Each structure stands twice: as structure tokens, then as C-alpha cells.
Amino acid sequence: MSRPLFLGVFADEHDILAATEATRRAGYKIHDVYTPYAVHGLDEAMGLRRSRLTYVCFGFAFVGFLVALVVQYWVGAIDWPLNVGGKPFNSLPAYLPVLFELTVLFGGLGVVFTMLVRSKLYPGRQAYVPVEGATDDRFVLAVEEDSAAFDEGVLSRLWQDYGLVETRRLTEVAA
Questions:
Q1: In the chain, where the domains are located
Q2: pTM for this one?
Q3: pLDDT in tens, 41-56
Q4: Beta strands per DSSP E along the chain
């Protein structure tokens, strides 16, 4: 289901940051902000929660640690026990390099795949750019027109204080 959006186009990152903060304080629901590069502080201005990917990373890293530990112990002590230089079959110091590497590998790959699935980024998906130049030199603030209290004129006047270049209305929004 597509929701109508009201877009404000800005030319500077400081303008989009201030306009986003002011729009959120005014009570409007921000759909998204499209920028050509990452803008420091934009997530706080939009009121976004902290990412839970750190917990996902910890979970995948822990799984990698356990896989490395179990496989090495099983191979070294149960499946193929070799007595090399009188060392015990389950020598933990010998396991450490592989434990570290698989912990990092599982954590990193798990976060990447989780982020791609959560963001719905998959091969062949067409990029959605609401305004020409949003990936080159323009900053676009998209506000949802979902409430009866939404007023295009009030929002346009609010954005004029922050260097508004143009406004647009979108009725069809790609999922």
C-alpha cells in the first residue's frame, strides 16, 4: 500500500539536518531522508532508535565461536585423535586462532546478510529515487501525509527558514 508523501528538497546538509529536527518537533511523521552521502546526526534528528545489529552480530559471532570450538574438539579428540608431541587431544591454546577467525567471520557475514534481508536489498531490485539529483547533490526530506492535521502550506513555510529549494507531492511510492 502506498502512502502519499510530501517532499522538501534542500541544497545543503546543514539545512536538511535542521529542517528534519524542526519537522519532527512540529509533530509530522518523517517517512525518510534521501541524501547523496551520510550526514552525521541525521539519525538523531529523525528520531530513529539505535540499531539492533550489534546484538545480531554478537549472536552470529557466538555461533561462530561455538562451531569452531565444537568442530576442533570433535576432530582433535574424538574423530581423529593424534598424539603430537605429547600434547593433550583437546588443547585449547591450539584452538585460539581458528576460534578467533570463525568468530569474526560468522559475526561479519551474519550482520551483512541480516542487513541486506532487513533492508530488502537483493540482486535485481530497482533503486527508488524520489527526486532527480537526490543521489548527486540534493537532500530530500519525505513526510507522510497520513493525518488530517497535515497542512502543506504550514510545512512549506516551516521549511522556508531552512533553505528550501522546492517542494513536491508524490502519490505513488515504491515499496
A1: 5-49+128-170, 53-118
A2: 0.73
A3: 999 999 999 989 999 9
A4: 5-10, 30-34, 139-144, 164-170
